[in-house]
Amino acid sequence: MKKSFIRHNFRCIAMNNKGMPLNSDDVILLQKDSFTISRLKELIHLQLRNKLARSYYDSQTQKPEATVLALFSQINLGEEELTIAEIQYNILLDCQILKVDNGGGWQKGHLKIQASISPSPKNQKPDTFIMEFYSATAPVPASV
């Protein structure tokens, strides 16, 4: 089984814009589903990698040609081949957070998720996940 390298950073952006660390055991509520930060990161990573590992088929032969990930690993421009270093996903979700270390109860806000996946087997850059929480009273992050 191929090893997967994952780097993740979690931080909570308070109204005063000072970073407040999110623990991997903090709980996020997305509509009716709740997850620890570590489990949410794990599920997102698994879903992205599984979808990108799917094969696409030749319409005439009905045989698999390559994976979706391989399809996005390079772009051919005439005789020039461009290798794609990473694919980025940016997601903004309404949520509530429960910080396990301060007992302050649920806080409403927005969870910004940035995920970067390396499509090229030549590039051993680790997949990265950054999650930021913005309080409902703080401005919503502009770039998603």
Describe the model.
This protein has 144 residues and is mainly beta. It has one domain (6-135). The protein contains 2 helices and 11 strands, in the order ββββαββαβββββ. The strands form 3 sheets. A 7-stranded mixed β-sheet has the order 2-1-11-10-9-3-4, covered by helices on one side. The chain has a two-stranded antiparallel ribbon with strand order 5-6. It has a two-stranded antiparallel ribbon with strand order 7-8.
What pattern of helices and strands is seen along the backbone? EEEEHEEHEEEEE
The whole-number mean of residue pLDDT values reads: 80
Widest β-sheet, arrangement of strands: 2-1-11-10-9-3-4
Strand content: over 45%
The radius of gyration computed from the alpha-carbon positions, rounded to a whole number of angstroms, is 18 Å
Which consecutive residue ranges, at least 5 long each, have pLDDT under 50?
1-6, 10-19
Give the count of structural domains.
1
What is the makeup of the main sheet?
A: 7 strands, mixed
Number of strands: 11
Distance between the termini: 33 Å
Please tally the helical runs, counting DSSP H or I stretches of 4 or more residues: 2
Measured as a percent range, the helix fraction is 10-25%
- Please tell me what the overall shape is: elongated
Structural class: mainly beta
